[in-house]
# Entry
Amino acid sequence: MDKIEKITKAEAIILLMTIIANNIIFNISAIILNSAGTGAWLNIIYLSIISIIFIVIVTILFKSFNNADIIDVSEYLGGKFLKFITAILYIIFFVIFSSLALRYFSNSLQLIYFNYTPLIILMLLFLIPVIIANHAGLKAIAGVTKIFFPFTFLGVVILMFVASKDFVWQHLFPIFGFGIDSVFFSGINNLFAFNVIAYIFLLKPLLKQEKDFKTISIVSVIICGIYILMSIVSLLMSFPFIIETDEMFAVYLLTRIVSFGEFLQRVDAVFILLWILVFLSFLSFNFYCILKILKKILKFENVTELHYSLALIILGIALSFKDIITVKFILRNYFRIYSVILIFAISFIVLLFAYFKKKLIHGKEIMKK
Amino acid sequence: MKCKQIVLILIFCLFFLTGCSSLSDIEAKAYVIALGVDNGESNNIKLSLQIAVLSSSGGSSGESQKKDSSIISVECTDINSGISLINSYISKQIDLSHCKAIIMSEELSSNGVSNHICTLINNVQIRPDCNIIISKCSAYDFLNNSKPVFESIQANYYESILNSTKYTGYIADLYLSDFYSNILSKSSQATAILGGISSKENGKELSSTSDYMAEKTSIDGKNNVENMGTAIFKDDKLVGELNNIETLCHLIITNKLENTTITIPNPFDSNSEISIYIHLSKDTEKHVELINGYPYIKCHSYITGNVLSLGDSLDLTNSSNLEILNSALNNYLEKNINDYLYKTSKKFKSDIAGFGKYLLPQYLTWQDWLDSDWLNNYENAFFEISVETQIQSGYLFNKL
# Structure
């Protein structure tokens, strides 16, 4: 953690895919289905197009800033003050996201399998490996994620494939679901599903080869779109009632109906195990991002000691939510909007103005010469 | 770096061991094989649980078969409170993870079952592939009379007894998840397996195989309970029943028919009947449209079959005879499917075949669909049924 470790193109894509996979576990598909109804898949196609255009523009704007992430770019634009503000906003995003996800996933696990295990123990079982993973550094997190990735990825593909026997395509209609507004206007809030872009904003200095940034970003956003679309389509075609009910863990419903012939049934536990691995990678990378930002703004040489404090802060916030309903309420009504504003408005504006500033200065330099 | 990765993998793998912390012995659990719900006498419901007796399972003697399971019933306000009461009564903890069947009495089902079904679907232990049986007798009597004859373990009995749908088509293999989904659906209605206690007296009144349903068969055997036919629901209330041949038609329309043997009047000899082994060669094509606001439903089924009967009047080597036989089978199936569909529409007013979903693409928003009030409009439906059969041959002989 002390020295900046660089990751390869494959490692970066896999790490970002872990973030995407976590969104499915985090019930984001169900949130989209509840807001857009049967039009959720159209909403995601629409949002995917917006996100792809957005990320293409972002990569073009980032081209002018070598080895810089959004924090460095904000420093370039508005000095230490803007850097501090942007960093704080991103820290809030990662800390709240980690806390919400930790509470949500631990609570779901407790309800499904560990009824007698105290919630705090389950949370600690996640946090302790994450602290150790961050001691080991980014390369180790990426490496472990790379080892587990084929299993987690195949798990999702197999889940969709096996569940497909129960699919009824007509349940994808009426096409506009809860109305055109819910798909195209108020449905913009569902851009939250593309929160992987927040990680892309911090990715550039971590890459071994900066030229890969554009490919990694675009590929990740496309995969994110496909992944969420697949999960929404699977859920909608298997459980049409899902648009009106409120599930704790929508994808888990899919795993419960999956069976491989007469002999291999009730395989939900296998999928839960895979999702635990995905969640650990997600949380580890989130920790890494928070620590990286903290290191940048506080000018710490060594942030190792911060691991424990950060873990305690996240644990504290996760425990402070009264119940899982509160977690869902905060996620749907506040965090979703906060993420969209931070990623698609604030970060973009900062990047755009910084780009113009650079062009202006560059133009003046040319004029002087 | 490799070392770090290995350490991390080992830490991540700690989750493989988490089961050890809350380890519970199999002996400490009382595994429910089947769950029955009846109307209670003094309280809301009467919950009956058929629990596996682990110590004597696996034995092959008659004695061990008798002790294979035990039934406990309790009067309670809802299923969960009933389970708690039974938990306090027995020395083990009730576990529903191996429950194979949920039996609800006809009387209870007529008053609505959504509360009980939603309670069950909300239970993590109950599997969504658990079968739903509506019993014509009380659920307690059904459980009490369900004694396996050909299986040594009661749990296997519930699993295998419903397998007959694969080769008879007289019951539809229906799961809790489907039932729940259909209860909540705005485009289809729910069905369940119809069960009851064998009553040989009722069966004697029957003249044709097409009139069979649970408690009304002419089967004489040691098996006390029988599952035959389909229970029809409108919203969450039981509104009617389908007999075996209507259930078969239901399976043809919903593309769930695997194989079955049907008996039709012999077109070559009016005094006899012919048995034909049939299956779907292609999925049934369904087309639904609204004409002046009334649903107009067209179905075209594709059936392939082989003649099982053999007699003097049958010569399957002659192509014109095959055509006559095809035509007879077409007419027989068309008439029965037509009767079945009009019965669901006019008598029961319940779209159990899920025709509503074929109209969904024609609506733009969910509210438009709800405003169309499909489930109530289904009673105005009229049908056009066609069946295309292709009898291939006899079995070992094509003529005598």
